[in-house]
Specification:
InterPro entries: CRISPR_associated_Cas2 (IPR021127), Virulence_VapD/CRISPR_Cas2 (IPR019199). Homodimer, forms a heterotetramer with a Cas1 homodimer. By secondary structure, the chain is an alpha+beta fold. It has a single domain, classed as Alpha-Beta Plaits (2-Layer Sandwich), CATH 3.30.70.240. 34% of the residues lie in helices and 23% in strands. It has a 4-stranded antiparallel β-sheet. The relative contact order is 0.25.
């Protein structure tokens, strides 16, 4: 399954921008990859891990920020479509799977 984190953090003051940057860096330390500027994703295998990560996200969220966490099953995530402009690039986040027939 994939955890998709969408967040909105205020960036009006210098301190708010600093907190937002710190939060985004923390997401990468937790194993998330940037999908868009305020949308990060991470593959997860166990519900226990998911619950621990969500607890960390709640605890470290700046006071005036908000996040939405989606849990996407592999079947849904595998069907996503990326539409790219001329300057776009495609990045595969999931690790390749070995299938033995």
């Amino acid at each position: 399954m994939v955890l998709l984190v969408c967040f909105d953090l205020p960036r009006k003051t210098k301190e708010q921008r600093k907190q937002a940057t710190k939060y985004r860096k923390r997401l990468t330390l937790l194993g998330f990859y940037m999908k868009q500027y305020s949308v990060y994703e991470r593959e997860i295998r166990r519900n226990n891990t998911k619950n621990k990560i969500i607890a960390v996200l709640k605890q470290e969220l700046p006071a005036k920020g908000q996040i939405t966490v989606y849990t996407l099953p592999d079947e849904v995530n595998d069907q996503q479509i990326a539409i790219l402009g001329n300057q776009g690039f495609q990045k595969t986040v999931r690790k390749p799977q070995l299938i033995v027939l």
